[in-house]
Amino acid sequence: MPSTPHPEPDLVLRRFTRTDTEFFSRLATDERVTRFVGDGRTWDSGLIAARVDSALGDVPPQHPEAKRWFIASLGDEPAGLVVSSRHEGAVEIGYWLAPEHWGKGLAGRMVALAIPAVWDAYGPIQLSARVDPGNRASVRILARHGFHADGATPEGLDVYRLEHH
């Protein structure tokens, strides 16, 4: 008798907590994940600790340095991270997905969940994302969720924006 496939658990987004540091550290030290993050290099333990402390700081969402991180989980298993930070009249978002979950459509689902979560956290504000032009998958995901190209950074990253509606 053929076995019935087990349905994959729903993807949920929840606030990042200190207990998520180990998962984040695994992402931040994996060169496949960091290839399109920042300068493209993996992070050392000092940078990881500083970023976690900053993300967990109790800075009000209206503050210019406010940050909110979210874990995307499948059941009890963390699958990805959504980061958000206030910058010059917008909130920048980014997303990191564990390599074992690549190619399953989870990054797009993470962005779909992140948009309302970020607006809930910060209020009605423009969202932005910086993307390496070579990261075509991220460009497609952002476009599918209503982001529009809006120039480039001096570092050569394309900027995408989404207005609150």
What secondary-structure arrangement, pairings included, does this model have?
Layout: E1 11-15, H1 21-28, H2 31-34, H3 45-56, E2 67-74, E3 77-87, E4 90-97, H4 106-122, E5 126-131, H5 136-144, E6 148-152, E7 158-162
Parallel strand pairs: 4-5
Antiparallel strand pairs: 1-2, 2-3, 3-4, 5-7, 6-7
CATH superfamily: Gcn5-related N-acetyltransferase (GNAT)
CATH architecture: 3-Layer(aba) Sandwich
Helix content range: 25-40%
Domain count: the total is 1
> What's the number of helices?
5
Mean pLDDT: 91
Overall number of strands: 7
Largest sheet, described in full?
Answer: 7 strands, mixed
Q: Look up the CATH topology.
A: Aminopeptidase
Report the uncertain regions: none
Radius of gyration: 16 Å
CATH C-level:
Alpha Beta
Global morphology: globular
Secondary-structure class = alpha+beta
Q: Widest sheet: strand order?
A: 1-2-3-4-5-7-6
The N- and C-terminal alpha carbons lie at a distance of 51 Å
The share of residues in extended strands comes to: 25-35%
Q: What are the secondary-structure elements, in order, as H or E?
A: EHHHEEEHEHEE
